[in-house]
Amino acid sequence: MSDREAVQHELLYDQAAIEQICRTEWRPVYDLIYRTVQNRAEAQDLTQEVFLRAVRSFERYEDRGDAMHALLVTVALNLLRDRWRRRRPVAANVDDLPYLATREPGPEQRALDDLDDAAIQLALKRLPDEQRRVIQLRVIEGRSSQEVADLLGRNAAAIRQIQRRALLELRESLRTEVAR
Predict the structure, then answer these.
(1) Number of domains in the chain
(2) Looking at residue 140, what is its pLDDT?
(3) Do residue 113 and residue 71 come from a single domain?
């Protein structure tokens, strides 16, 4: 009997050898699975399935000098991949969730409602031309910093700085307008 056949025979027929493998490898395999599934009962079930699959595959096992741990980790990872592939995403109908689908305005909308359109227009007109143009392109039209930079012949960092200064001036102007 060759060494390979001896190892296979021991794995297939020696109950003590199988129990020893289970005792020494159960915790590392369980920990690997638990880190992925985050559920004790499911991790225990999957760990048990790993060992069952490993025992069933012992007759095909070829000892290449790898530790039994490597085989068990491979089986565990394959089992987790299979589980992930079979898993169907849970679809929730957002209309059925009244606490998410509220018709009330959010804080941003309430703040905008508090401001008068005329006050915003006046505050925009008070900005220097370059700042007003940057706000128009970046905020109102939604263009990127790079697009605005290309249009205005500046670099993107300068556009972001101009936008920042303009927003600070707008905030201050609107605060004084609301305070009146």
Answers:
(1) 2
(2) 83
(3) no
